[in-house]
């Protein structure tokens, strides 16, 4: 049995992540309307997870001053009892006055079993402890002076906070302030900060240094360590910004403004050891056609990936924008398709952006690729009235959901149909699809999730589009940023002295 659950966000938001990884019986129990938080722990205590979940021993500070760092076990666990067996075998000798608690930690990025050493009250034994039938949310006050593992856990919960419903209570209004502060940062920024803070906390725990508040000399040392590990200057700047933000929301003095930190960063930027900037190759029209033509179109995955590639190119979409498209965001007519992006990088006020992709007549038309994907997958927007659900359709809101391939057929039976998930692909999955399809087509180069966008802008420049139309197409706010997307070969073909030399 699980001793408790750790939720880094509201259960309604975290539920899809759990649904995708539990067994069928647990899935049915979780989707029942009468499931309450009081029985949620007991349901997940018997759930089987696929793939198995990682198992961690959370770091903690013991009374003698010794620190137990976060430790990940080499084996994963399919269910809670399996995780407890692994933990008990690893921690055969517990510190005096402590017992082991096993929790299921759920956030948007991962699910994991986490064990903690919890102090017993005087005169109490582990067998006397009451079982916990409630969900423990991460504490909201900043964990000042606590071990780095708690700092990382608190920051993760904070950046995932949702705006609460109004009930007139002061505590609710104060929680709303924190949620609105987090919404001031883009989702990708919050995710990058969360990863950076986790890295900082791991480093601080390894060297037995305080994570919150951080000392200026420790921050400078950490940034120097990143530089020696050949991290890019932009990545190091991101870690500095994340640490500044961590102390800002904790109402603590900012250690990153110290001259020692600033001079260390200046030296990193001037250092000859720094890694040269990555030159991502754009998928121009000729290359994207070559990649698409190599897709065999023998499965649902092929149809989905083909639509991702062509739509990403046709709309100069970022990988995060591709992953976030929902079925209700797309409309079709005889001339074009329109994709409404409720959130995008340049739309800081979330007013919405509409992408128009014209309908073509070739086999490389993005609109026709989208229609082929819908026809083969039978995707339809989720019907709110469950009693009127059509047959042989896959209800979802995700335009590009995950697909699980079926197991091999047995006894000459027809193979089962692939399972289409209800959750969208992550932006990392979109980038992986682009890289894999380029590799399968035999195209050499450093491709990434940005290659579609870069290639579309580059092709527009090659076709003679002026900067105003390119800027409208790419949705950039600054011409200087737009110019950086045009491939270097334009410097040769458009060189002013080419016809004079």
Molecular structure report:
It is a single chain. The chain is of the alpha/beta class and 501 residues long. The chain folds into 3 domains: 4-121, no CATH class; 153-270, DNA polymerase, domain 1 (Orthogonal Bundle), CATH 1.10.150; 285-405 and 417-490, hpI Integrase, Chain A. It has helices at 11-19, 24-30, 37-45, 80-90, 148-159, 170-183, 187-206, 216-228, 233-249, 259-270, 285-293, 300-314, 319-324, 366-377, 427-440, 451-462, 467-474, 479-483, 489-493, and strands spanning 4-7, 55-57, 60-61, 67-68, 71-72, 98-106, 111-119, 135-137, 330-332, 336-341, 353-358, 379-381, 394-396, 401-404, 419-424. The strands form 5 sheets. A 6-stranded mixed beta sheet has the order 5-2-7-6-1-8. Strands 9-10-11 form a 3-stranded antiparallel beta sheet, with no helix packed on it. Strand 6 (98-106) and strand 7 form a beta hairpin. Helix 5 runs antiparallel to helix 7, helix 7 packs across helix 9 and helix 16 (451-462) packs antiparallel against helix 17. The longest helix is centred in the middle third of the chain and has 20 residues, at 187-206. The relative contact order is 0.07. It holds the Pfam family Phage_int_SAM_1. One of its GO terms (molecular function) is DNA binding. Keywords: DNA integration, DNA recombination, DNA-binding. This is Integrase/recombinase xerD like protein. One of its GO terms (biological process) is DNA integration.
């Amino acid at each position: 049995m699980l001793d408790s659950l750790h939720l880094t966000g509201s259960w309604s938001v975290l539920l899809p992540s759990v649904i995708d990884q539990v067994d069928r019986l647990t899935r049915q129990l979780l989707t029942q309307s009468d499931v309450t938080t009081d029985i949620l722990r007991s349901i997940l205590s018997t759930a089987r997870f696929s793939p198995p979940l990682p198992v961690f021993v959370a770091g903690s500070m013991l009374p003698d001053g010794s620190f137990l760092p976060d430790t990940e076990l080499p084996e994963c666990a399919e269910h809670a009892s399996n995780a407890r067996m692994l933990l008990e075998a690893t921690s055969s000798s517990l510190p005096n006055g402590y017992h082991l608690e096993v929790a299921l930690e759920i956030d948007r990025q991962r699910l994991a079993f986490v064990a903690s050493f919890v102090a017993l009250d005087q005169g109490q034994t582990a067998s006397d402890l009451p079982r916990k039938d409630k969900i423990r949310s991460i504490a909201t006050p900043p964990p000042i002076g606590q071990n780095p593992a708690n700092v990382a856990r608190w920051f993760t919960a904070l950046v995932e906070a949702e705006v609460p419903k109004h009930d007139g209570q002061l505590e609710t209004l104060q929680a709303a302030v924190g949620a609105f502060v987090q919404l001031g940062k883009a989702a990708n920024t919050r995710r990058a900060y969360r990863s950076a803070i986790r890295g900082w906390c791991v480093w601080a725990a390894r060297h037995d240094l305080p994570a919150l508040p951080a000392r200026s000399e420790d921050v400078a040392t950490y940034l120097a360590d990143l530089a020696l590990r050949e991290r890019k200057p932009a990545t190091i700047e991101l870690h500095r910004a994340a640490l500044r933000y961590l102390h800002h929301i904790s109402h603590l003095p900012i250690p990153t403004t110290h001259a020692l930190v600033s001079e260390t960063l200046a030296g990193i930027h001037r250092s000859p050891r720094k890694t040269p900037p990555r030159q991502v190759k754009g998928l121009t029209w000729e290359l994207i056609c070559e990649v698409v033509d190599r897709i065999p179109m023998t499965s649902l995955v092929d149809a989905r990936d083909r639509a991702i590639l062509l739509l990403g190119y046709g709309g100069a979409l970022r990988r995060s924008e591709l992953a976030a498209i929902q079925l209700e965001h797309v409309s079709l007519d005889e001339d074009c398709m329109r994709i409404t992006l409720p959130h995008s990088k340049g739309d800081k006020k979330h007013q919405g952006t509409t992408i128009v992709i014209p309908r073509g007549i070739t086999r490389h038309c993005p609109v026709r690729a989208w229609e082929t994907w819908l026809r083969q997958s039978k995707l339809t927007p989720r019907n709110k009235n469950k009693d009127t659900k059509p047959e042989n359709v896959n209800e979802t809101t995700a335009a590009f959901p995950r697909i699980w391939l079926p197991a091999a057929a047995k006894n000459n039976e027809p193979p089962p149909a692939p399972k289409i998930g209800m959750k969208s692909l992550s932006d990392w999955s979109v980038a992986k699809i682009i890289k894999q399809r380029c590799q399968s087509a035999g195209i050499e180069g450093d491709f990434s999730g940005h290659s579609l966008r870069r290639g579309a802008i580059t092709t527009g420049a090659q076709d003679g589009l002026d900067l105003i139309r390119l800027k409208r197409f790419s949705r950039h706010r600054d011409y200087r940023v737009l110019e950086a997307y045009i491939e270097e070969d334009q410097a040769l073909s458009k060189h002013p002295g080419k016809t004079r030399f």
